[in-house]
Design a protein that fits this description.
It is built from six helices and six strands; from the N terminus they run βαβββαββαααα. By secondary structure, the protein is of the alpha/beta class.
Length: 173
């Protein structure tokens, strides 16, 4: 099993953190992982992305060649990456932030921003979409993802795990 993942959004949405959590979850599951990060040249408000390769075997090339899973929290993320998504690829997106009606593909719309606001923590939308991603792909285990969240955010573990769980259970999307 080898999967290539791109996480894309704007600064402040926790995109790089989301990439790190996916990668750390895969490490917890004893998988091979490579992650690269890229940022827009803007100091604030620009795009950011994380590319991950997760495999059961050694990874011999550090860059993705096509996207199996695209997670985007911005319209630009869909617009600039749609052509790199493989034919059987899956696109996870916040349907309140991204209009996908003009595109063809396998979309999993999530109301991550709305759910995180309902929880009283708008910054947790990356945790919500992480939960959906883990539940729908199985690329990493739920336990590994929760452990990664707890290690990265020991002070805020409870609220982040709650947001993750809402996404994992498929609440409101």
């Amino acid at each position: 099993m080898k999967k290539e993942i791109r996480v894309y959004g704007y600064g402040g949405q926790g995109i790089i953190t989301l990439g790190h959590l996916i990668g750390e979850s895969a490490v917890e599951d004893k998988k091979e992982v490579i992650m690269t990060e890229e940022y827009s040249p803007y100091i604030t408000g620009g795009w950011s992305r994380a590319d991950l390769i997760i495999s059961d075997e050694a990874i011999d090339y550090p860059l993705i060649s096509g996207i199996d899973y695209l997670i985007t929290l911005s319209q630009e993320g869909l617009d600039v990456n749609i052509n790199e998504v493989k034919n059987n690829g899956i696109i996870f997106l916040d349907s309140d932030l991204v209009n996908y009606s003009d595109f063809k593909g396998n979309f999993i719309p999530v109301k991550a921003k709305k759910i995180s606001e309902k929880l009283g923590n708008p910054r947790s939308m990356n945790m919500v979409i992480l939960g959906v991603f883990v539940s729908r792909t199985g690329i990493v285990s739920k336990d590994a993802a929760i452990n990664a969240i707890k290690k990265r955010f020991p002070k805020y573990a409870d609220e982040n795990v709650k947001a993750f769980e809402m996404g994992f259970r498929g609440e409101e999307h």
